Amino acid sequence: MAVTVETHASLAEAARALGMDGTYLGGGTVLMRGVNAGGVQGRIVRATDPGLRMISAAGDGLRIGAGATMADILASREAEFLHPVARMIGGPQVRAMATVGGNLFAPHPYGDFAVALIASGARAELVQGGVRPVEELVRERGGVGARPPLVAAIELPRPREARAFGFLKVSRVKPKGVSVLSLAAWLPREGGRIRGTRVAWGAMGPHPLRGAGAERVLEGQALDAATIARAAQAAAEGLEPPTDALASTWYRREVAGVHLKRLLERMA
ω before 109 within 30° of 0 (cis)? Predict the structure, then answer.
């Protein structure tokens, strides 16, 4: 079957054109591999809607168009706290193509930007209507026969202080290798205590997910050496990391606490 590409001026038009047999093209870093390998055929639908790449402040938060690339994130002052995340995704060519929306549905071991969004409590504005937590969309993306919803934009808060958000990526090839694991933490503090703890992991399960063990230890505590040590011990609780060409389940579980400790010490 031949591959055809349809281009629409708005995301709403592209959504209507998808039908049951169309495949949506965002940045193409994942989809085009399938096209080149012959696994993706038929109708490919894309949108040139300029709103897809807009990044703007929204009160105390940030609104990022789903078509914004990692390069767009790096060029945005409003998204400065996300620069360390975007900078760790691929090389310059990948960052010029990879989109925020596409990263939500990238297969293991990709999806590092989704890890940061989950940690921040980000929500996805859907073309079909409604707003859903990014955490839910990522968790559901592996459903058999399920087509992921079209995301128009991402809404997320901005940290009130620099040390409230942190990101760490571990890879064997520097600086742009695929993740052995990635980790993000959102640790806002009131009166010296952490309130509203969120920790998220990448490559530690079938999709990016929350680290409930570390969150339980950190919530309501001061980020001191004793708390960090306890959180490191609980780092892999409830996680079932995969074995793949990059690392084994055993290895990922063993080093999770080491890297969580390093991240928390940077944020203390």
Answer: yes
Domains located in the chain, CATH noted: 3-47 (no CATH), 50-157 (3.30.465.10), 162-267 (3.30.390.50)
Asked if 54 and 68 count as a contact pair (C-beta separation under 8 A), the reply is yes
CA–CA separation, 44 vs 2, rounded Å?
A: 11
Residue 183: beta bridge partners? 168, 201
Closest to 187 (Cα-Cα) out of 148, 157, 209? 157
**Residue 197 Cα distances to 119, 181, 184, 215, 216, angstroms:** 9, 20, 11, 6, 8
Q: Where are the alpha helices (DSSP H) in 79-235?
A: 83-86, 92-97, 100-103, 112-120, 134-140, 212-218, 225-233
pLDDT in tens, 87-117: 999 999 999 999 999 999 998 889 999 999 9
Q: In what order do the strands lie in the sheet with 42-47?
A: 3-8, 42-47, 23-24
